[in-house]
Design a protein that fits this description.
Elements (H helix, E strand, L loop, with lengths): L8 E3 L2 E5 L8 E4 L18 E3 L5 E3 L10 E2 L2 E5 L10 E8 L4 E3 L11 E6 L5 E4 L2 E2 L4 E6 L5 E9 L7 E9 L14 E4 L2 E6 L8 E9 L2 E2 L12 E6 L5 E4 L15 E6 L5 E11 L2 E11 L25
Antiparallel strand pairs: 1-2, 2-21, 3-9, 4-5, 6-7, 7-8, 8-13, 10-11, 10-14, 12-13, 14-15, 16-17, 17-18, 18-19, 18-22, 20-21, 20-23, 23-24
Length: 322
């Protein structure tokens, strides 16, 4: 810079950080009452336990990243509660540790101590920003959320002496909300005169090779600039629940073998069938740009035909599936 996703493998030198990556924790002072745990987390934790740096027993959780506001004793606490559409807002939050105090020490990963991802629930809006932390452990960053509606904020970090985590919390921008449909599947995206093509397929439960190729004005871009220690970053969000998957590329700048474009190779493992929204950050000519894609994973489950005539609904049939 959660409901069934499990990432965390290094494939061919690639780090796929599922459910989090980037931060470190030591407590200093209380930051208010932690919010109630997010009900979007559906999976039960495993029985294996480990001890965190604060001496509290921690339970390993196989829920995908970003679906929980709390994990392993760490909690994402939004402090800013009012956000107006289109207005720059100083968004403030803290990460509290198992002792209830604000975490102030973070490992630097991918050039930053913490990465903050904010996406609208309809996946139309995506921002990858890097807040600044005050000595008391409160983070702040200027956010401009363009439209009214629900958003999800993901804090991607790794506490000192602990595992990498991605915690998520809901944000609401007041106003009239009309969600957009998920963009259709496409292998090509354009942004600021750049064309990015995607090659490869997502296969649930398997490592999938994805190749992103960048061109401008019909010519391949061969001088991509390092951004957060790589030539590109890829974030995938599962469309149905915004389960978070952070994927890092194969190779790194300066390793003697990784070329600065036009192709960047990623390996990713998604946990289930369904649609995913992919956001690819790359830097060229001193500016970071984001190309977005919708990609399906595997075949959609087939619903067997009913052998009996269903009773009519008392509320009518609105034609929507949930």
């Amino acid at each position: 810079m959660n409901a069934a996703v499990k990432l965390g493998s290094y494939v061919l030198g690639l780090a796929v950080v599922f459910g989090g990556a980037l931060g470190v924790g030591k407590a200093v002072g209380p930051v208010g009452t932690p919010p109630a745990e997010d009900h979007a987390a559906m999976a039960a934790p495993t029985a294996s336990a480990a001890h965190g740096e604060h001496g509290t027993a921690q339970v390993k959780n196989d829920t995908p990243g970003g679906l929980q506001v709390s994990e392993n004793g760490y909690t994402l606490n939004p402090i800013t509660t009012t956000i107006k559409p289109g207005e720059p807002t100083d968004f403030r939050f803290a990460i509290t540790g198992p002792d209830g105090k604000a975490v102030t020490g973070y490992q630097v990963q991918h050039d930053k101590k913490l990465h903050l991802i904010v996406a609208s629930r309809d996946l139309k809006t995506f921002q990858h920003v890097h807040p600044e932390m005050a000595p008391d452990g409160v983070w702040s960053v200027k956010l401009t959320l363009p439209d009214a509606g629900p958003y999800r904020a993901f804090a991607d970090f790794a506490p000192t002496g602990g595992d990498a985590l991605t915690l998520g919390a809901d944000l609401t921008v007041a106003g009239d909300y009309r969600p957009d449909a998920l963009p259709g599947q496409s292998r090509t995206a354009t942004v600021d005169g750049y064309e990015v093509t995607l090659d490869g397929d997502l296969a649930p439960g398997q490592s999938s090779r994805l190749t992103l190729k960048v061109s401008k004005d019909g010519e391949p871009v061969t001088d991509l600039q390092p951004y957060l220690g790589a030539y590109g970053h890829l974030v995938a969000l599962r469309a149905r629940d915004l389960a978070y998957l952070h994927v890092h590329p194969d190779g790194a700048p300066g390793d003697g073998k990784t070329e600065p474009g036009p192709e960047i190779v990623f390996y990713a493992e998604v946990p289930s069938t369904g649609d995913y929204r992919l956001f690819f950050d790359f830097q060229h000519a001193g500016e970071v740009r984001t190309a977005a894609f919708t990609l399906g994973a595997g075949e959609r489950p087939q619903v067997p035909a009913s052998t009996s005539t269903p009773e009519p609904s008392r509320h009518g049939d609105d034609g929507h599936s949930h």
